[in-house]
Amino acid sequence: MSFQPDRGAPDGVLRMDALRPLNSFEEDGIRYFSGTASYATSVDLPALEPGQRLWLDLGQVGDVAEVWLNGEYAGTSWFAPDRVEITDLAQESENRLEVRVANRWINRLIGDVQPGAEPVAKVVSPTYVPDAPLRPSGLIGPVTVLATQ
């Protein structure tokens, strides 16, 4: 996973064993991140049978996801069920998957009013209090590939 720069999140790539909401991280730069987080991995796919279609089911997404397969744009999802058809871009065996998830500014604005925080967002007047609940954000999953006829 990597983050859009200049939004308070760490630079570089963060390796994760499992998907989880960004707001569940202890590190403030991730917990309060708002912007686009990019998730990348490789996935092996089987050969398709005639007439078969492949869908990438993203599980839970907070808030909008853009799917790229093998460097090609597959589609965008912004409502449940968060699924994008990947049939025409899928290759038998290894495929490079990237999911870019953009979330709302709410978590960033809450992070900016934490005691001692260095604000990232610029607002005219205060919008949230420090103990306001954070929204689930990022690619939460589980992510699965579905085959249909």
Describe the structure.
This protein is mainly β. The chain has one domain: Sandwich (Jelly Rolls). Strand 5 and strand 6 form a beta hairpin. The longest helix has 7 residues. The radius of gyration is 17 Å and the shape is elongated.
Q: Termini separation (Å)?
A: 33 Å
Radius of gyration over alpha carbons?
A: 17 Å
In the sheet with the most strands, the strands line up as 1-2-8-5-6
What is the general shape?
elongated
Strand content: 35-45%
Number of E-type strands: 10
Find the structural class using helix and strand composition: mainly beta
Structural domains: how many: 1
CATH architectural grouping: Sandwich
Spell out the helices and strands N to C.
EHEEEEEEEHEE
Low-confidence stretches: none
The level of helicity is under 10%
**Largest sheet geometry:** 5 strands, antiparallel
Q: What is the overall pLDDT average?
A: 96
Q: State the name of the first-level CATH class.
A: Mainly Beta
CATH topology: Jelly Rolls
Number of helices: 2
Within CATH, the superfamily carries the name Galactose-binding domain-like
